[in-house]
Amino acid sequence: MAISKTKIYEPLTTSRAINLLKELDFFKKDSILTCNEIGDGNLNLVFQVTEPQSGKSCIIKQALPYAKVVGESWPLTLNRAKIEADALKLYKEHVPQFVPEIYYTNDDLAITVMEDLSSLKITRKGLIAGEEYPHLPEHLGEFLAKTLFYTSDFYLEPPAKKILAQKFSNPELCKISEDLVFTDPFFNSDTNDFEPELYDDVQTLWNDFTLKLEAAKLKKCFLTESEALIHGDLHTGSIFTDQYTTKVIDPEFAFFGPIGFDIGQFFANLIFQLLSNPKDKERLISGYIVDAWNTFEKTYSDLWRKESREKYTEVEGYLDFVLKKIFQDAIGFAGCELIRRTIGLAHVEDLDGIFDNDLRINAKKASLQLGRAFIKTRGHHIGPESILPLLSETAAYAAINKE
Ligand SMILES: Nc1ncnc2c1ncn2[C@@H]1O[C@H](COP(=O)(O)OP(=O)(O)O)[C@@H](O)[C@H]1O
Ligand SMILES: CSC[C@H]1O[C@H](OP(=O)(O)O)[C@H](O)[C@@H]1O
Predict the structure, then answer these.
(1) Which whole number is the average pLDDT over 255-273?
(2) Do 179 and 108 fall within a single domain?
(3) Closest ligand 1 atom, residue 252 Cα
(4) pLDDT confidence of 6, banded at 50, 70, 90?
(5) Domain final residue, candidates 114, 144, 166
(6) In a domain, 302, yes or no
(7) Which helix (H) or strand (E) holds 343?
(8) Nearest residue (CA) to ligand 2, atom 7
(9) Of 93, 114, 135, which residue is a domain's last?
(10) 151 and 183 share a domain?
């Protein structure tokens, strides 16, 4: 597929999206098509185009030259569409079963035409609706192990990895995470957004200098440790699921960063479910975290032993050192994610959607408490079992007043 004339960027409308797909011969010129803009994320346009007669459909995602959630006052590079498409193409090489098919990309138009995954559900929404996904933890564990191993110095020749890292240089999107995940929530910043009932807890957090020192170390790790190509925004809104299938979308924040970041974001976004429904979901969510980590650890260790090209991977103790560092980073990053999604700019429906005011505030207080504990105690944890008591305590705290 190719567009004959050179196109200049303009934001798509539903009719432009339809015309584009006909021009690309994705649909016949005389097809009757329907098109809806279904994007519910913070940044981009997402169009679903369907031919009702045949049932054929696809998705066109387009970056806007600004952050959609804020508007034109927050300009943002269109290059993020290329980063996202390139990351999905790279994932396709290593984990084709876990990503959508990409049909067409155009960097000038900042668009990706991809498989319509609407037969699956966004994991966050499915979990909120009470669904369970038995294969999600093992699928994510495998996705994480393979994408993070195959793009690291343990597999790639270091010069090749450095060249790949240049291709995924993503300064504007990284800056968003540096600010919104690591800095703003820890200070009295304009971007923060929280209920007045949380004010005392937030003051305590802002005055906790041990916490701030540890958050600074985590930010430094995010800024400087180019371990592997990370997704960069791997929350449960970036994963489509059903009982058998898992598909990861939306890697526009991808760059070469610390491996623990993706794992920590995934864990934290599972934990929001535990906080929103502590009595019913503690076992389920704790189990998902343990299973995801165990699959990650096993898959990553197998790859390390069988496919590593780094001489030092033969040295006894090195794998254990690397895995421990990844886990401890992940717990720290999970702590930052818990805090920023509670009091920062971008919230999650798991918490904001709790209708009862007392329960919502309680869940958010529990989230802040767990976030702080994760950040400060991460150095003591060597595997998922050791965080289970903290998850239990947090669930008990969040469940207060629930009768
Ligand atoms: N391949 C797809 N198939 C079906 N729906 C999709 C697809 N990609 C995105 N969507 C829908 O669009 C929403 C926003 O997509 P996302 O990639 O997360 O955008 P943003 O980058 O703005 O966060 C998703 O929550 C989902 O509902
Ligand atoms: C102003 S961007 C805020 C927030 O939005 C991104 O999420 P998504 O694209 O999935 O909606 C990312 O998490 C950013 O931190």
Answers:
(1) 98
(2) no
(3) 21
(4) low
(5) 114
(6) yes
(7) helix 318-343
(8) 42
(9) 114
(10) yes
Q: Quote the domain boundaries for residue 179.
A: 121-399
Q: What is the DSSP string of 254-275?
A: -EEE-THHHHHHHHHHHHHHHH
**Residue 347: inside a domain:** yes
218 and 282 share a domain? Answer: yes
Q: What is the pLDDT of residues 185-219, one digit of tens each?
A: 999 999 999 999 999 999 999 999 999 999 999 99
Residue set of the binding site for substrate: 233, 340
CB of 69 closer than 6 angstroms to any ligand 2 atom:
yes
Separation between Cα atoms, residue 20 and residue 320, nearest integer Å: 51
- The CATH number for 110's domain is 3.30.200.20
51 assigned to some structural domain = yes
User: Domain check: are 68 and 155 in the same one?
Assistant: no
With a 6 Å cutoff on the Cβ, whether 43 touches ligand 2 is yes
- Same domain for 365 and 317, yes or no, is yes
Read off the pLDDT of residues 18-57 as tens digits, 9 standing for 90 and up: 999 999 999 999 999 999 999 999 999 999 999 999 999 9
Confirm or reject: Cβ of 100 under 6 Å from ligand 1: yes
What ipTM does the predicted assembly reach? 0.98
98-106 long-range Cβ contacts below 8 angstroms, 24+ apart: 98/139, 98/142, 98/143, 98/246, 98/247, 98/248, 99/247, 99/248, 99/249, 100/59, 100/240, 100/247, 100/249, 103/1, 103/26, 103/58, 104/1, 104/24, 104/26, 105/81, 106/3, 106/7
CA of 53 to the centre of ligand 1 (A): 24
Nearest residue (by CA) to ligand 2, atom 3, is 346
Is the same domain home to 266 and 292?
yes
Would 341 be classed as within a structural domain?
Answer: yes
Sequence-ordered list of residues with C-beta below 8 angstroms from that of 231, at least 6 positions apart, any chain:
87, 147, 238, 248, 251, 253, 254, 262
Q: Could you tell which of 38, 44, 45, 46 is best to mutate to test the pocket of ligand 1, judged by most ligand atoms within 8 Å of the CB?
A: 46
pTM tops 0.95 = yes
How much is the pLDDT for 221? 98
Binding annotation for ATP: 44, 61, 115-117, 250-252
Number of domains in the chain: 2
Q: How far is the CA of 240 from the centre of ligand 1 (A)?
A: 9
Q: What is the per-residue pLDDT across 304-354, written as a single tens digit (0 to 9) for each?
A: 999 999 999 999 999 999 999 999 999 999 999 999 999 999 999 999 999
